[in-house]
Amino acid sequence: MKIKIAKRTGEIRQDPVSNCYTIFSEERSLRPFYYEFQNTAMESSMCPFCVGNECLTPPDILTVQDDSGTGWKIRVVPNKYPAVRASGNIIYSRGDLEYSVSSEGEHEVLIETPRHELSLTGLSETEISEVLEVYSCRLVSLSENTNSAYCSVFKNTGPIAGTSVVHTHTQILSLPVIPPVIANELFNCSIYYEKNERCLLCDILENEMENGYRVIAVNDSFAAFCPYASRFPYEVWIVPMKHSSHFERSHTGDYKDLAAVLKKVLLNLEKRIEDCSYNYFIHTMPFRSQASDSYHWHIEIVPRTSFFGGFEIETGMHINHVFPETAANELKSISLIRDKRRR
Ligand SMILES: [Zn+2]
Ligand SMILES: [Zn+2]
Ligand SMILES: [Zn+2]
Fold it and tell me: pLDDT at position 31, please?
């Protein structure tokens, strides 16, 4: 049976051979490329995320006031050139060979500081924990849209990582589908749980802590380590010590501990890799899911030291020239190990 659909401005199509999704959004092509000129004297007058240029973005969704109460320190605004858009009317098209869903969702930008010259690591741990809390607030709010299945929270830093605006920010993108990467993680974790009655990430974490040679930072609530099969040189995962399936159900104190580990890891990466471009993203349970004993949320940080080549695109495999044991050794020798300041 083939269902004809009404004309729409954007859609998400699934390739039946690979199961990969592609979001089609013609308005993304209008997106300006700010990166180069923002390092010049033009930066403050042209940057859409700087104080005084608030009129260059759509109106705020959420604002965190600064301590004086006269300005802002965090803003969340709609992305001016969204990949997805909320219409309230989700349309599915299921043919034998063609499956698509309208690109129903929200695409937001979280501006982490009003200060153009700062990177995320230039913020204090308290300020970073406030950014993480705002991630959580937006996830909770976006989950209320019954058309949303998953929300991607990701950060691009540096030109190789896909940044178009230098001013430090995170993107938050809710989707009507569960991305295949997450579906695959959920599946693998549930298979492991069925077999072992244990959470896979809890066991990986236990193993990493026992061995220690891939661990680079630890505090009471989080551990950071280079994963066994790291795809990228100096890839780092940050995993909560206590089992938890939903990022947005963490406690305030957890975000403080997470901010401490995240800042240390990013600072060490910046020290180890000159002009470090990186992405990080949160992998968490899809919306409307109950707490899960088998899935364990985490943050993946992937430094980008080169562009993808044909092999990676063709096979989904990566060629990594730094073993994670070497990467961890280099990253932890830059500073730290165990931080026992809290609680
Ligand atoms: Zn700026
Ligand atoms: Zn777990
Ligand atoms: Zn993951």
Answer: 67
Q: Which amino acid is at 64?
A: V
Q: How far apart are CA 172 and CA 35, in angstroms?
A: 20
Asked: is 10-178 a CATH 3.30.428.10 domain? The reply is yes
| Residue pLDDT, tens place only, 35-70 | 544 554 445 678 999 999 999 999 999 999 998 888
Pinpoint the residues of the chain covered by CATH 3.30.428.10: 10-178, 181-334
pLDDT in tens, 249-291: 988 779 999 999 999 999 999 999 988 999 999 999 999 899 9
Distance CA 62, CA 141 (A): 11
Beta bridge partners of 14: 21, 99
Query: Which ligand lies nearest to the CA atom of residue 117 in the structure?
Result: 1
**188 Cα–ligand 2 center, Å:** 13
Q: How far is 135 from 137, CA to CA, in rounded Å?
A: 6
Question: In the structure encoding, which two tokens stand for residue 75, read together?
Answer: 């803003």
- What's the CATH class of domain 181-334? alpha beta
Q: Identify residues whose C-beta is under 5 A from ligand 1, the ion.
A: 47, 49-50, 116, 167
Collect all residues with Cβ–Cβ distance below 8 Å to 33 and sequence separation of at least 6: 164
* pTM (2 d.p.): 0.91
| Mean predicted confidence (pLDDT) in 328-333 | 91
Give the residue numbers annotated as catalytic, written as ranges. 169
| pLDDT score of 42 | 44
Q: Which amino acid is at 270?
A: E
Q: How far does residue 37's CA lie from ligand 1's centre (Å)?
A: 11
Amino acid in position 242: K
